[in-house]
Amino acid sequence: xxxxxxxxxxxxxxxxxxxxxxxxxxxxxxxxxxxxxxxxxxxxxxxxxxxxxxxxxxxxxxxxxxxxxxxxxxxxxxxxxxxxxxxxxxxxxxxxxxxxxxxxxxxxxxxxxxxxxxxxxxxxxxxxxx
Length: 130
Fold this sequence. Notes:
Layout: E1 3-6, H1 9-20, E2 23-29, E3 35-42, E4 45-51, E5 70-73, H2 77-86, E6 93-97, E7 102-108, E8 114-120
Parallel strand pairs: 1-4, 5-8
Antiparallel strand pairs: 2-3, 3-4, 6-7, 7-8
C-alpha cells in the first residue's frame, strides 16, 4: 500500500474523500489524540496517510514533480475524471489514452502528491498495461 507523507493528513484525507470518492477506514492517533496515520480506500485500492515529522520531503521523492505517488486502477477513467472535476478537483492530465493501453487521469493532492487513476483498455492475463 502506498504511504503518503503529509504535513496535514486530515486535509489530504478530506481531499481524497470529498474530491475523489475514497472512504476513510480510520485513524491511528498519537498520545495527544491527533491523527498520525490513516487509511483511505477506493474500491480495492488502499492509500495510507502518515503525518510527517518535520517538513515533508518532496511528495514524489527523487523522481520530481511529475512522478506518481500512486497509480490506482478504476473501472472508467472518464467517469472518474468527471466525478473528480464535479467535486472541484483540478485534473492535471487526461483522460488520456497511452501507448500501453491504459486511459489515465492525473490529479495532485493539496500537498502535491501526484496520483494517477488508470483504466485498463485491453485487459489481459499479465495485468494492466502489459
